[in-house]
Q: What sequence folds into this?
């Protein structure tokens, strides 16, 4: 009993910090959303009905979730083969690759985003190369398009996909691949019936992180996407700091949170169904 | 039903001048083994001797730098692992953790394009053979070590491989279970008539399961022979030391006549032994098993004085420790019930049926 209490008490500082810095602001946000006016004097559901009465906001929500799903697709398509390659490298090359993967995390998102402007701009690296090779005759418009945004988010979010994926994959017994081959399975069969199911927990964790991070990537979305591509974080910023309509900003924030969490819940449900076999 | 399992004739396996390099180091150095159809061969040696590498080359997981592997005379070196039809059981069994016992055993059949009721019939037959019919819907983590191993065995056998490879298959089992599984594997192997290679570092396991043992050291095969021949006539000092326990006595060949050498031991006796092709004047080491030494109270010819030490009863035997005049510690084993205490028995000699071996001593 005594020791139980002591263990429980160890979690207190974190619990208090969590309550003060996360739970309280969240409740405050919910509270603010139930005011009608920007002066926060008049209780009511006006902000909610106003926000959801506007068809434009539905489009913004859908666009935001789609942006997350597109980024998931590109990070999986590039990241999963990269993780497979990582497994076959010598320990020394693995260290080099991990460094390359983690390095972007050590740089500020702002720096990485501005670097992408240099790469994707009218006079940027991509256009200069393509023009120089004669593949295109006039510069492609990549900045302020969703294509350019997804390209840069793919690079920016890649560590979040690769780190959980690699950590789960390296716990998969390498003998399983040999066992599968010895039983007559081709490499593709081994990939789809053994490696993929066993790396599912890492894949799902990576997707969750990439989705949560790319749907809320305010800096990349606004700097690369510009003001014509509108996602929920931009709407929140406009309502909170340009229009100063905090109840509407709160409604937009909660909409972002709820819609993102719904997708995440769905993804982790898939993850739980497929998970739990590693180290079985 | 056991007869029904036996579908193919056993295959011969030939390994010819096989060499494997890992970077600059030689993992396997020009190894040749001719394995008869239906034979069980143990690759025995300390860790790092190349035995597992050799097994992985045969399975097709590792490419050799030189040499060939043939099954029934046909080279298989160009074939990837999934086309060799060689079954393997790993030390950690490597069962697919997300599949049930049935799915694990059916995996190889499905990979070969077998579908429908045939698969289930074969799976059931092999699960019966390894006595696991009641566990077909369990996941591997819900099974004990011995059960997991039987699943691994059934999985490897279900595809009717031409050769069966066992990579330290008993190492993870506790002592009693290990003996049961050794008997079980041997029984299955006999029934199926399957050519089998077993990798192990456990000499007792090699002795009890294998028809022939290849003792490996530093990438080469030091001796490839029957267990009895390896025990009684070790060809090198390494084999001699690795198999069983032994006593080494220093000496010198005084003279040789007609294949018999007169050996003067440093311990103080002159023995007449088969010369093993060694010339007079050669410094030698005489190896003799503990059970081939005797102690007696009366000095005799070809005996040397020892100073008795501890005596330990080990099972049905009594192990004596004794020290020679030149400071070598000897182990002598005698039956416990029939022999008197060693006190007063100060003279050590070879027993009548002793088969000592002579090796040149590098100075």
A:
């Amino acid at each position: 009993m005594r020791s139980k209490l002591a263990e429980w008490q160890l979690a207190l500082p974190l619990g208090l910090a969590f309550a003060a810095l996360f739970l309280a602001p969240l409740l405050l946000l919910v509270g603010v959303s139930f005011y009608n006016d920007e002066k926060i004097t008049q209780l009511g559901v006006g902000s909610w009905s106003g926000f959801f009465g506007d068809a434009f906001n539905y489009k913004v929500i859908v666009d935001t979730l789609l942006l997350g799903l597109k980024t998931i697709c590109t990070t999986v398509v590039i990241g999963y083969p990269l993780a497979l390659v990582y497994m076959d490298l010598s320990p020394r090359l693995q260290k080099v690759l991990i460094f390359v993967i983690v390095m972007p995390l050590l740089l500020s998102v702002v720096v990485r985003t501005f670097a992408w402007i240099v790469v994707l701009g009218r006079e940027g690296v991509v256009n200069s190369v393509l023009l120089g090779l004669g593949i295109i005759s006039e510069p492609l418009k990549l900045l302020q398009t969703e294509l350019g945004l997804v390209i840069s988010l793919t690079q920016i979010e890649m560590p979040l996909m690769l780190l959980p994926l690699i950590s789960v994959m390296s716990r998969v017994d390498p003998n399983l691949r040999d066992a599968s081959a010895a039983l007559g399975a081709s490499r593709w069969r081994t990939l789809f019936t053994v490696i993929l199911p066993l790396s599912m927990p890492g894949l799902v964790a990576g997707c969750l992180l990439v989705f949560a991070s790319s749907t809320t990537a305010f800096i990349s979305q606004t700097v690369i996407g510009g003001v014509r591509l509108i996602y929920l974080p931009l709407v929140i910023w406009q309502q909170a700091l340009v229009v100063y309509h905090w109840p509407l900003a709160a409604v937009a924030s909660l909409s972002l949170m709820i819609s993102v969490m719904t997708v995440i819940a769905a993804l982790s449900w898939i993850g739980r169904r497929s998970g739990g076999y590693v180290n079985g | 039903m056991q007869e029904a399992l036996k579908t193919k004739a056993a295959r011969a396996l030939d390994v010819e001048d096989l060499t494997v390099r890992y970077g600059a180091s030689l993992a396997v150095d020009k190894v040749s083994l001719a394995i008869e159809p239906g034979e069980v061969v143990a690759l025995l040696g300390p860790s790092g001797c190349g035995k597992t590498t050799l097994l992985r080359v045969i399975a097709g997981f590792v490419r050799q730098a030189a040499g060939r592997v043939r099954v029934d005379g046909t080279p298989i070196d160009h074939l990837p692992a999934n086309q060799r039809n060689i079954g393997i059981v790993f030390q950690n069994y490597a069962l697919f953790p997300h599949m049930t016992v049935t799915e694990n055993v059916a995996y190889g059949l499905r990979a070969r394009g077998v579908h429908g009721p045939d698969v289930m019939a074969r799976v059931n037959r092999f699960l019966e053979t390894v006595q696991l019919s009641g566990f077909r819907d369990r996941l591997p983590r819900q099974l004990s070590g011995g059960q997991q191993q039987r699943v691994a065995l059934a999985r490897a056998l279900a595809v009717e491989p031409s050769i069966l490879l066992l990579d330290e298959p008993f190492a993870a089992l506790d002592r009693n279970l290990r003996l049961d599984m050794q008997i079980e594997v041997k029984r299955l192997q006999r029934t199926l008539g399957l050519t089998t290679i077993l990798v192990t570092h456990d000499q007792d396991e090699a002795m009890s399961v294998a028809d022939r043992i290849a003792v490996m050291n530093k990438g080469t095969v030091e001796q490839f022979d029957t267990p009895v021949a390896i025990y009684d006539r070790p060809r090198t000092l390494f084999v001699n030391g690795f198999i069983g326990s032994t006593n080494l006595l220093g000496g010198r060949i005084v003279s040789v006549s007609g294949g018999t050498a007169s050996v003067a031991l440093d311990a103080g006796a002159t023995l007449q032994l088969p010369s093993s092709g060694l010339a007079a004047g050669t410094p030698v080491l005489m190896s003799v098993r503990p059970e081939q030494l005797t102690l007696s109270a009366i000095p005799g010819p070809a005996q040397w004085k020892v100073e008795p030490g501890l005596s330990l009863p080990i099972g049905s035997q009594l192990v004596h420790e004794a020290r020679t005049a030149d400071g070598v510690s000897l182990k002598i084993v005698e039956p416990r019930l029939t022999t008197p205490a060693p006190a007063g028995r100060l003279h050590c000699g070879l027993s009548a049926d002793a088969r000592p071996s002579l090796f040149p001593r590098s100075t």
Q: What stands out?
A: Chain A has one domain: 42-274. The interface with chain B takes residues 173, 175-176, 178-186, 189, 193-194, 197-198, 277-280 of chain A (CB under 8 Å). The CA atoms of residues 17 and 23 of chain A lie 9 Å apart.
